[in-house]
Each structure stands twice: as structure tokens, then as C-alpha cells.
Amino acid sequence: MTTEPRKLKLPARRDLRTRRSVIVIDRLADGIIRVGGLCVIVAVFAIMLYLAQMVVPLFTGGGVTAEFARTTSAVPAGPTIVDRLDDYRTLAIRIDDGGGVSAFHLATGTPVEVPQLDFGGNRATAVARTLSGDDLAFGFADGTVRFARLDIKVAILAEDRVPAGLARLDARDRSDGTAVYSSLPGAQVRRLSVAVDIGSPVTIGAGVPIVAIDLRKGGAAERPTTVFATVDGNGIARLSQAETRTNLLTGQARTTTGTTVLPALPPSLSIVAVAITDKADQFYAADRGGMVYRFDTRDFAAPRLVEAVQLVPSGATLTTFAFLNGEQSLVVGSSAGTVDVYFRLPRADARTQDGFALVRAHAMAPHAGPVTLMSMSQRSKMLATADAGGHVWIRHSTSNQTLLKLPPAAGEGSAYTALMLAPRDDGVLAAAGGRYHAWAVDIPHPETTLRTIFGKVWYEGYGEPVYTWQSSAGTDSFEPKFSLVPLIFGTFKATLYSLLFAVPIALGAAIYTSEFTHHRVRATVKPAMEMMASLPSVVLGFIAALILAPFVETWLAAVVAAAIAIPFGLLAAAYLWQLLPAEWALRHGGALKFLLMFATIGAAVGLAILCGPLVEYLLFAGDVMAWANGDIGGEGPFMLVLLAVPSFFMVEAAFTRSLGDRFHARQRGLPRHQAGLLDIGRWLAVALASLLLAYVLGLGLAAIGLGARGGIVDTYTQRNTLVVGFAMGFAVIPIVYTIAEDALSAVPEHLRAASLACGASAWQTAVSVILPTALSGVFAAVMVGMGRAVGETMIVVMAAGNTPLIEMNVFNGLRALSANIAVELPEAVRDGTLYRLLFLAALVLFAVTFAVNTVAEVIRLRFRRRAAQL
Amino acid sequence: MGRLILPAATTIVCGILALAAANAQQVDPKLASYQTVSGVSGNLKSIGSDTLNNLMTLWAEGFQQRYSNVKIEIEGKGSSTAPPALIAGTAQFGPMSRPMKAAETDQFEKKFGYKPMAVRGAIDALAVFVHKDNPIQCLTLQQVDAVFSKTRKGGVDKDVTNWSQLGLTETFADKPISLYGRNSASGTYGYFKEVALFNGDYKDSVKEQPGSSTVVQGVASDKFAIGYSGIGYKTADVRTVPIAAKAGATCHDASEEATYSGDYPLARLLYIYVNINPNQKIDPLRGEFIKFVYSKQGQAATLKDGYFPITAPIASQDLKELGLAN
After folding, report:
1. Closest CB to A827 among B78, B178, B278
2. Which of A104, A571, A580, B205 is the most buried (most CB within 10 A)?
3. What is the dihedral of CA B44, B184, B222, A610, to 10 degrees?
4. Is the same domain home to B63 and B188?
């Protein structure tokens, strides 16, 4: 059969003009794409701006929203000893040393009549109040103590139930002389009135005056406790504790009490203040000269003086001394103007009897003149201090910053005699006689500064400044710990370990399917891998936490063994395959080879499980958990395993450089199976040499203190980064694989053909020709995988234990930024500090992915330019 | 169709009544029996404590069986999610396993002018769980503190990190203690921190689980674990550890008796917070639900869920405060 040359059919007349509709569609598409692209960019920036705008208030301080100075005629007869402000800053209440209670409407100074405390004609010599001011204790010169309550009663009434004939105080408030009625939104009225109640005198030290007293109410709602302490004129300190438990069935309350008399203080002291904890385990007495005496009263049967320490600068006197909310920070003010925060901490070099010492954790900005007054917040670690010049400063202990400096009103400048921080931290009242100055302040985020979020902070009870994340608790005395550093670290740790697991497998698989298998195999494998990517990550997390984690824990040695056995087994199988006759190997290169590979992996896993105990014995001195914990065994064997792979590559490279050509020349002359045998011999020799090298390197590194233990392996916990790495691998491998595979397959066929035609093996072609050409795509694949790992949430939430640790240990957990956002967002109060911090976490996550992607893109473009020259 | 449904419904109701009767011996007999009223319908949503999640579900089921026109949705991610939900008005009930903090009440008051009301719905013995094979006999609160806390405010000088330090031998000797706990949204987290940790801080190595059941699952699958959650989540794979209030005091298991007497140091009340305007009568839907919670039938559910029922004095006191007393 002859073939005639085919005639090329050309259109008779070719219209060279583009059709109008095509042009229109083209322009339209161009416009839409342009607008769409711009919209995406704008949207990304808008998100970033929104996040930034949510975050900014964290770093801006507070401000004064209203301020006024007035006088009132409601002045107590004697010196004021107790000050109170109600929750709503409506009423100010003062008690003098004769039990006289006076109250006035804060905004106008109008006096409000309130019941008086009956001291029986005595004058109080010492006073104590709980932080809220509801409970009071007064000490008297005759050695008695009286307990009292000062309740500010709040009732919400409907507008129509308000009594008629009230005198109007201001736009919001009315009064009947004994109560204040404040109009609220929704036709409601809040009625504020004061109730007092005083108990009968309790004799503490007969005839000896009480010079200092402290009172605490604590315990959970189910088991309330009361603790109070006194110091009398002879320096005798007493401490009492009462705990009440109520039987819920019978309603019967049982109160257990304990009292102890402390070792005597030197009688020459002039005790200014005492402070106790609500557990009654610590007792502090402060002398005017600045000496503070600390007693350990954990054991009521044997209280002891454990520390006496000077806490004010020499030459100065101690003027204020009190606990911050939570009774962990002692704040000491002095006549030199210093305001220092002390923690009781265990110290190895403590020259005290209990190994603890008072340590100055924060030295706050000093006042210009002597500190005269101090008032503690009931909600946070905020405090207000006033100096002799009438300056009032609002500070925060955790962030050690001065939030507001309130100058004295014009024409004033003398010392105040009373200072009150409002119960909700939203105002300050300073008073002297009938003159007072009030500020309404708004300090939404006193605890955050750049330093507290990204730097080390010294928190209450901590031995040193640390990075830590503990955002909230069930009590108001909790000091929130907002360091993003452990979370950022956690994100990077999870990413690093999951990429270490995923990238070699994914790239290996991509190279294998694109370069070594039949295109039909690839057509099945690739969609199967992509199916894997569609597994919801919550499912992966669930499986990881509840199935994989216990499995890995039980079979840890086998898992380590498998990490050695699988690559080794596959390599061994590959060398053995070379021994097969060429024709047979070629004929069965497809399905059978594939099946054999699976069989090899199966056999390697089986072998790993069988050899688990042996590996445990050889590497981990018989017990991998105890070994990781650092209890038994040495570093050597594990370092050998860890360094085996890098050593192998080093030895292999050295061999190829030095003897490679000669070896290949020799090999070429041999028949196939002999060449194969020689190759196995070479491989075994290299493997042995690399083991030797790894051993030497391992010993060397361990000797200079670079061992794995205490670094990347440490105490084993069930929810750990290894498990996260495996689970996240499942999420990352398909993405990296499919993009890398596309990049490798896209390398022009002529390059492959040219390389093979020049006599290079498929492996040489893949590694030296295809991979460098496709490097930009492969790199992009890894970066996209990294992006996925950084943002991955559900797997880390479920399987990582959410422990905000800063340790590289692969055997313990982590807390990632993304997981933290997911876990804590439901509890965050809108526009609260935690809420904004979670936005900051999101912004950090955003910035990290942005940076990673930008760097990736820059490197990718550089590679691509190089590849384009090929 | 109606003919088909009626017998089925009767069977279900009878079944529930029988169940309630079976449990009735343990519920305070002075509690009122619930009387169905007419005209109750609408939707309710509860957001809050995970500890109370199952119990809320049981109450909701019981309530819905009496009122077919009522739909109740329950979400339990942690007690700290209750106040924001009550403030935003997304939920009518805010179950919490700890009392509200002052800061949370402030937020509520800022919006509504009045304070939220608390319903004391059940009694829980917050339990410390270990694996079922763990032989530990007793822990003092101070030891629990030393196990879970990095600040050790309980007063124990040395950190406790392995089971030998708590006196265990053989398979548990020298084994590191694996810690499980709740996330910070949880009221159980807050309560445990307040009472067992004496307001100290958790170690960073406490594995924070999103729910009570995952804490218990974690402990069940981890032989050297210790964790805490409401007693209602106890399973056969974990053991509760008896707790003593201090060294030398008697150890009490999380039993009914020790919980009621207050001897078990981690006994606590479980609350449901409600937004009730003190000047208005509560709407019948929420009012009836609260009455149901306080009824014999409602309290029988607490037993079914593993918690302990509240007593008649508490119920009558709370109902009076809520303006629901008859």
C-alpha cells in the first residue's frame, strides 16, 4: 500500500481580524481578573489591618475619662481609718477611729446618713479590712478586738417602685438622705444603702493595746475560712484560723478553729503593719525602720520566726506595707519614695530557716517624695500609690509599669490622708479632710506591654522571670500570664518535626512515581495520595490522640526500630534485586516489583516489632521511657542511630569522590550478577564505615555535652510531638507530594531523554538532571507543606497535649498558636485582654505565614531563573 | 398517626417514671414532684460548663418529654464560655462548675444593671483519677498540689514528678507521672486550681484536654497518668483517688456521704446561671425548666449522670430567691 503525500487544506480566505466578540470577552476577562486580583490583595491587607487595629489597644495605656475636685461636709470627727467606695463609684464611705461612719455622694459631695459603729466610747488603735472592705476588724487599747461588717446593699428596683419625694443629686442620682437611687437604662433604678454590724469585743491580750491587726476571708464558697492576726504592745503576735464546713444534708455548719501565739518580737519595735495569707501559713510583721519579720506558721503547733530582713533603703522609713490581691506579692513603700514588690521564693542561698527568702521582684518607678498611701485593686494586680506632694500614680505589678500619673489639682499639693482605688479599677478617690479629688479612669489592658508578651516576666511565686502562657482561672486573684513565646515556639516545633517526617517521604514518593514507575501506576497513585489530603484533620487528630498515641507509647522501641529497619530493608531489597537476571528483572519490573516493595516494608515492620525489645536493650539500656527520662543508660547508642543517616551520606560522598570512578571502571567489566554482588559488598562496607563514623561522632558530641538527651529527647509523655509529627505527616505528605510530583513531571522530556541517552542511569538522571531543574517547584511544594503545618489546628489540639512548653523534646507535647486560638476563643470576653491577645496570636500567625511565603517565593523565583537557562 | 404515637409516648413516659421511681430513694423525698403546666413552649439555649453537659442534656430530655413544643440546644465548652454567652444573650442558661468571678459579674452588670442569678443544680465531687491498675491509696491536697503545680503553694517543698515519690513500687517505681487536665475555659480547671493548687499555677506539662471525657479517656489509656474531672465522667477504666485535706487528716473517697458532709475536700456545687430581671416575673419557659431541675424527677437525673442531688432546703431557698416558690 502506498501512501500519497497528504495535502494540507488551508482555508480559502483567512480572516486576519480578530472577531469583535473575542476582543470584548478578552477585555472583560482581563478587567475581571485584574479587579479580582486587586480585591484579593485589598482583602488580605484589610484582614491584616483589622487584626492590627484589634491588637493596638493592648499597647496603649489608659486614660482619665473624668476628673473633679470637691469638698464635702461629711467629714468624720476623728482620723479616717477605713475608706470604702462602692462598686459603682456612687458612694464614698469613711470610718474614723471612734466608730463614726460618714458617707457622701461622690459626684456632688452631698452627705448621706449612714448607721454608726458602736465602739463603746473606745478609740481603735489598729484596723484591718479584707480587700473588698466588707469585713473589718478593729483593735483597741484594752487588748480587745471587734469584728464588723460594712455592707453596701444594692437593690434593683423598677422605676415605678421608687419612693416619691427624693432630692435630686445630679442628672443620674437621687437621694432620700439615707440611700442613693441611680437611674439605669431600661427604666431601672439601683438603690444603694449602707448597713453596718459590729460584734462584741473579743479579748486577745488583756490590757495590752493592739498595735496591728490583719484579717482575711478565703477558701472556696463551700468551705469559707477566716484568718486574723494581731500584734500587741508587748510584741506578742497571735494568729487564728477558722474553717467552716456545712453538711448539705443536715444544714449543720461545723467550724474548726486554731490559734497560735508566735515567738515574741523584740519589744522595742514599732510595728506598722502585719500581713497574713488566707491559708494562715505565713505571717509578716513590718517595723517602721523597714525590718520585716516573717514567720512560718504552716504548723500551728510550732510557729517559728524564719526571716528578718531590711526592705527599705537605709535612712528611710517604711510607710506602707500590704499584700497585693492574692497574697503573694508584698508591696513595700518607703519615705524615700520607693515602691517595691517582694515575693517569698525558695532560694538555695537563702540564709533563712526554711530555705525561702523575700526577693525583690519588681522595683517600681519611685515617687519624688515619701510614699504615704497605697490602695490595692480587688480585681487585678493593679495598685495606686500617693506621695506627700499629692501625686497619685496608678501602677501594675505584673507589667511593672506606671499606667497613669495623676497630678494634684491646681493650687493643691499637700498630702492626702485617704486613697481608694475603685473596686472595679475604674476610678481613684484621694481625700484629705473635707477636700477630695476623684478621677474616673479607663485602663482596659494594664497587664500587657510588648515586654510582657514577648519578653520574660517575673510572675508571683516564680523563681525567676520566665516565658509562660496561662491565660485565665476561676478567681479574681489570678495573675494572667500572657507570653506568646511558648506558643510561637510550639508552632515551629510542630512544623519542624512534622516536616522532618513528611518531606523525605513525600519527595521520595514524588521522585519515585515521576521517574521510576509506569505512567499508569502514577495515574493510580497520584489521585490516591490526593484522596489522603481530603481526610479531615479532626479525624486525623482523633485517631492520633486515641489510637496512635497509646500505640506509639506501647511500641516506642519498635517505632524507633522501624525507622531504621524500613529504609535499611528497602535498600537491601534494592541491592538484592540487582542480582536477578536482567531479563527476568525487566519483565517483572512492574507489578511484581511493586508487590515485593510492599512485602519488604511489611517484613521490615514485622522485624521491627520482633526486634523492638532487642533494640530497647541495645540502645536504651532496656527501658526506653526510663532512658529518655535520663535514669539509665548512656548517650552513645542512640546518638549512633541518630547520626547514622548523615554519616552514611558523608561516607558515600567521600567514597564517590575518591574511589568512585575506579570502582565503576572495575564494575563495568564484570557480568551482571557479579557486579551486583560487588555493589552489595560496597554498600555494606559503606554502611559499616558510616556506623563507625556515627559512633565516633556520637561519642564526641556527647562528650562535649551535645547529647540528644535533655535536648531533643527527654521524659516521655503520651501526647507528644512524635505522634503529632506522624499525624500531621498524613496531612502534609499528600500536598507536598502532589505539587512536587507535578513539578518533576513538568521537566521537559528532552532533558530526560538526553541524560538517559548519554548513559546515565534513571537514578542519576533523577538526582542530577530532573531534580535541579524542578527545584523551584519542589521547593514550593515544601513551603506549601510548611504553610499547612504552621496553620494546622485540629491535629495539634487533639494530639499535642496543649502544653505550653519551650523544649525541643520530641517526646513531649506543645501548644501551637492556632490550637491556642481554637481552644481559648470561646471563653474570651469580647474586647477583653485575652480576646485581643488571641487576635495578636492570629496576627503573629499571619505574619509568620506571610514571611515564610515571601521568602519561599523569592527563593523559588531565583531557582526558576536558573532553571530557565537550561 | 396520633394513635401510633400515643402508645409509644406512654411507654416512654412510663419508663421514665419507673426510672425516676427506682432512683427516688436517694433523692431528697422532700423535693417537690414536678407538675406539668400548660402554655409552655419556645426555644432555649444553654452554653457553658462541660462538666454539666450531660446533666443539662438529661434535664432537657426530661423537660422536652413533658413539653413537646420546647426545643433546647446545649453547648458545653467550659464554664468560662457561659458569662459571655449570657451577656451577649445567645444563651438563656449558663451552666458553670464554679461560681462566677467578680470580673464576670461586672461585665454582666454593665450590660443589664442587675447581677445574674445562680441556680444550684447539683453537687459534684471533683475527682482525681488514676489508671485502674494504679494502686495509690490516698493523696493529701498538698501532694496533689506538688504533682500538678509549679508554684506549690500548698507548702510541699519538693516537686513531685514520679510515682516513687508518692510511695508506689514495682511497675510504678520511678515512672514519671503523666498529667491530664482541662483547658482554662473550664470551671473545673479554675476550681481545681483554687482548691487543690491553693491558687497556684499548673505545670506547663499538664496536658490540657478540651473536655472532661477526654481527660478520663487520657487517664484510661495512659497507665502512669493522673487527671481530674467531675465525678460524673468516671468510667470503669479509671479509679478515683481518696483525698485528705491535709497531712494526717483522714482520707475520703469521692463518696456520697463524704461529699454531703463536706469531708471530701473537693466537693462543690454546680451552678446554672440565669439572666433574671429582679423587677419582672420570670417567663414560664425558663421558670418551668428551673422548677423541673429542682423537682424529684430533675434531681433523679443527677444520680443517673453520676452526680449527687441537691437537698430540699437548697432547692426551696433558691426557688424563693428566684421568685418561683409557690
Report:
1. B78
2. A104
3. 110
4. no
